[in-house]
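Good morning C.,

I know you're traveling, so I'll keep this short. The sequence:
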Amino acid sequence: MEIDQLETFLAVVTYGGFHRAAEALHVSQPAVSGRIRALEESLGVTLFTRGHANPPLSPSGKALRPHAEQLLRTVAMARQAVHEIQPHTAGALRVTASLSVCTYLIPDVMQEYKAANPRVMVHLRSGNSMQVLRMVLDGEADIGVARGLHHPEVETMTLRDDPLILVGHPAHPMAGKRRVSLEEVEEWPLIFYDRGSSDWTLTQGLFRRAGLLPNVVLEVETIEAAKRMVERKLGFGFLPQLALTQELRQRRLVSFEVVDAEPLSRNLDVIHPRHRPLAKEAQDFLLLLREAAATAEAASKPVKHRAGIRR
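The tokens, ready to paste straight into the viewer:
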């Protein structure tokens, strides 16, 4: 039983097939098949039920999965422990994050981090979730922060829940009540952002599944632009909680509970490479990031009227 065999096994489980696992691991499909076959031979069991496009785990495969995940975590911790005793000097920290994280979470973290680590050069790049994942996998970043980041070659830790919340200006003529139905919201002037993004798709899907057509009066590129339009009473928007903490607490915006809507929650994840131990600079940043995410989440909870777009 070898590490790359276990990683390949988990990749097949994660991506639902040998072909997709091969693409994710940047190896050929025969290489994936060979690793799985070697793992099965070393264990004397069959791990997948063959003959399916997305081969399901056999009982033996289901039993192996949690142990394989734990073994890879242990290997990562071992690498980290060895790395920590090596001498090092202040160097560089490379972070990649989604644009919303760069805008609403990273600045406060960076302020505290640079105060404690003035000699560390920080490189910050933004991108969508797939770009963030790719930069971490390709060694272009030490830490990545975005939504829905999962891959066999990275360690994933959920920082917080970041639901989409329906918000509007408290003085908008249509903002007369805080509990509304999705059919009522269908008639409201709505502001959407970043066409084709996961947020756009989730919000559009909410109406589509209900057989409704949202009244979209504005489409903009970014969350911040959408929020500014809502603040100017141009319409209502489903926006990430992370971007709304101050506005909701200061009552510059108000949230609405959509009583018959399903929750649209997303996890905000942080990732780092499984095979490249984190330097102390990255560990310090990760600790501050976790603390800031917890503080931001707690700050949003006192808001009395939260939308039905939540857990």
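Safe travels,
E.
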